[in-house]
Structure to design on (265 residues):
């Protein structure tokens, strides 16, 4: 599908040893009238890689995520993305559906029958010990449980690229920590490629294989930071590699906010 000044091409999910990257973006530009938001962003996500995207508030992180998911179009540049599942910051569960039917919703939209979709949703809920809440509506669930249901809804699509937009941003610190571990465990059980937008530097270092740092608006990439801390499921905030990655992310953000050039690391 083409757009003025750029293009978005949706390709099949990767498979096999020579599979294409689930996401490749080059020179992405996005404007809203006279307001330039993104200016020449290059971005890649490899198969089964988690890439965290951080930057100042309002720099276009969520805008970029929505373009990857096909909800917006770039004004310039090219974006090749496998079909993606989006998990927004707010769970956006349908209040008139119970947990099971919320998880089953993308399967129903894809053409599955009600019985088949509900059976698949029940299996997912059972795997994360939410089976006994399958008939509970969103207002009967805690914030952490609602986020789990929202994540299961994204998983139910079986798409290889997951786009997570500050998925834990509205939760308290203890629940955030629990869900970070929970997410890392789910991704180890069923590896996916993940693009994670977060304002939390520590969260980026705990979950990301790489961290992409955006500068102030109009945003470009100011740093690419590898996190050599082992599997995300086993990471702790006090691990030396996590502490080092957090420091480098902070330094890149501070330097970018001053308008200085940041060297990629």
């Amino acid at each position: 599908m083409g757009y003025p000044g750029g293009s978005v091409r949706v390709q099949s999910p990767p498979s096999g040893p020579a599979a294409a990257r689930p996401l490749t973006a080059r020179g992405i530009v996005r404007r809203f009238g006279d307001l330039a938001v993104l200016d020449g962003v290059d971005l890649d996500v490899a198969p089964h890689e988690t890439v965290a995207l951080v930057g100042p508030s309002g720099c276009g992180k969520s805008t970029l995520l929505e373009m990857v998911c096909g909800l917006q179009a770039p004004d310039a540049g090219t974006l090749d993305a496998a079909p993606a599942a989006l998990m927004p910051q707010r769970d956006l569960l349908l209040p008139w559906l119970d947990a099971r039917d919320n998880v089953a919703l993308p399967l129903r939209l894809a053409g599955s029958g009600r019985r088949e979709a509900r059976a698949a949703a029940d299996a997912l809920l059972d795997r994360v010990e939410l089976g006994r809440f399958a008939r509970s509506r969103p207002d009967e669930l805690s914030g952490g449980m609602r986020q789990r249901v929202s994540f299961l809804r994204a998983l139910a699509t079986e798409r290889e690229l997951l786009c997570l937009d500050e998925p834990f941003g509205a939760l308290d610190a203890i629940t955030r920590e629990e869900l970070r571990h929970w997410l890392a465990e789910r991704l180890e059980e069923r590896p996916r490629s993940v693009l994670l937008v977060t304002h939390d530097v520590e969260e980026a270092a705990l979950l990301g294989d790489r961290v992409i740092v955006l500068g102030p608006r109009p945003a470009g990439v100011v740093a690419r930071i590898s996190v050599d801390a082992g599997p995300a499921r086993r990471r702790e905030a006090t691990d030396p590699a996590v502490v080092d990655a957090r420091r480098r992310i902070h330094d890149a953000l501070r330097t970018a906010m001053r308008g200085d050039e940041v060297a990629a690391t």
About this structure: Residues 1-19 have pLDDT under 50 and may be disordered. The helical segments are 61-68, 99-109, 114-127, 143-155, 173-189, 201-207, 240-258. Residues 240-258 form the longest helix (19 residues).
